[in-house]
């Protein structure tokens, strides 16, 4: 009996170790991809249709008046969201896992905000409880296999009735795009991006709609608004083919969640 227990324990330890190793490998690949595309990403971000005329307008529309608000820009990229929010009177702190993106965010915002390298799967060690009015996390959570640690931290740093706004890849679109056969499983997936200079392999995780919403509702938030976005008119002028596609089926999902008072 003891032998069987020890065998099970060893197998569990091995499987856990393999999972940790795999997760770290995926994380390293994500960082490498963004380091590689960072400069071109920054050059194009102001007018690249999926960002400028699809993600940003729909995500920003979920925010209240930000003047005088403290905003945590989690996964800030090259600082475009921060630039917009600062211009509207917000105080912004930005984090990103890519050192190059952080460097570009600092350059873009000219010392009007602070930006640091940070992995969203780990705690914000330098941020106190109930410090921020709003947490913004745009197009980043799909790089995490487990959302819970990040969502718990978002809840912790938000003030009473604080708002979390996220944009993610739409789970139904991902299911079709990656030709998945296992909708309810969280799957590691990858594709090649060709829109930021050279072709770059980008790894992420695909998940069901419930796996997108449950981490919020089980970790201190209620869903206030959910938007399946449509592209703006500017998108049509820049990219008519994708404009048509996005009006027929969404690629992203935007969510506003509010911190629950216990």
Short description:
This protein is an alpha/beta fold and 262 residues long.
List keywords for this structure.
two-stranded antiparallel sheet, Rossmann fold, S-adenosylmethionine-dependent methyltransferase activity, globular, alpha/beta, 262 residues, 9 helices, Class I SAM-dependent methyltransferase, single chain, transferase, seven-stranded mixed sheet, 24% strand
Could you characterize what this model shows?
This is Class I SAM-dependent methyltransferase. It is a single chain. By secondary structure, the chain is α/β, with parallel strands linked by helices. The strands form two sheets. Strands 3-2-1-4-5-9-8 form a seven-stranded mixed beta sheet, with helices on both faces. The protein has a two-stranded antiparallel ribbon with strand order 6-7. The mean pLDDT is 93. It contains nine helices and nine strands. It has a single domain, classed as Rossmann fold (3-Layer(aba) Sandwich), CATH 3.40.50.150.
Number of H/I helices? 9
**CATH homology superfamily:** Vaccinia Virus protein VP39
Percent range for β-strand residues: 15-25%
Describe the sheet with the most strands.
Answer: 7 strands, mixed
Coarse shape: globular
Order of helices and strands: HHEHEHEEHEHEEHEHHE
What is the name of the CATH class?
Alpha Beta
- What is the CATH architecture term? 3-Layer(aba) Sandwich
Organism: Pedobacter cryotolerans
Keywords: Methyltransferase, Transferase
Domain Methyltransferase type: 72-166
GO molecular function, one term: S-adenosylmethionine-dependent methyltransferase activity
